[in-house]
Amino acid sequence: MPTAFFVERIERSDKGSSTSCSVGLEAPRLRESRRSINSKEENEMTILGKRIRMERIINRNTGNTVVVPMDHGISVGPIAGLQDMKTTIQKVVDGGANAIVEHKGLVEAGHRKSGSDIGLIIHLSGSTSLSPHPHSKTMVCSVEEAIKLGADAVSIHVNLGDEEEKVMLHDFGRVSYEARMWGMPLLAMVYPRGPKIKDEYDVEVVKHAARVGFEMGADIVKVSYTGSVESFREVVGGCGVPVVIAGGAKMDSDREILEMVKGSIEAGGAGASIGRNVFQHAHPTRMVRAICALVHDGVSVEDALKILNEG
After folding, report:
1. pTM of this structure
2. Which of these is catalytic: 50, 91, 137, 191?
């Protein structure tokens, strides 16, 4: 009614008279125009909000990121390094990590209430090693719930080639849409794992996984390192969004970890998302500091090893 009144007053001023027909035609047009303006403003705010949140999980100067995932508890239980969450998180913060990944129940347990901040990525999917289908991920949190918990971004895990691939892809699509609507950055962890996968580190299946993450709408895609700069360059080249590498199982050699990170950066990668090889390391803070030096400062592996060993 206020819209119709507004149009009617304008017509009377301009024309000296008004008809119910003209009001009936003009009011919907004005309402549609207002809806269009509001929609545009909301879209611009969503884009701005997403840009701000992205800068909380990356280094805004380099565009790269060092993420420490701590979402292992649902998969394999309370492994070493993930019992005292506040202490573990403080160690990676002191090393300069850009963000951590954790499930919703750990947010309060790991909230330190003091010290330097760190980006919070809440993981939305999970499965356990106790299941007969451990690679089949199911949704355990939503984008909206993550926002209420203070997340700067959300993440999802998809295993391509698994018997339940179609379910995981469906969930991925829904999460991608919701994240886009809320202006939430989305990290997609995409791995080729299933009966048809002979080698999950083969460049052909890894670059396929990265491409799936890109085409499904992820803002950052996490995949396994393929073993060489040349092969990983193919992975990065086929993905239109930043690619970070997974750390994989706990390694015995620090040099091996750092060489893997360096190789991914030389191939055009955007950083690393390494969990057990950080929080289970004898010196987590030093390890994070060494990885950050590779990812953000471009130092050599030898210099990174000095940072790690000399503290």
Report:
1. 0.87
2. 191
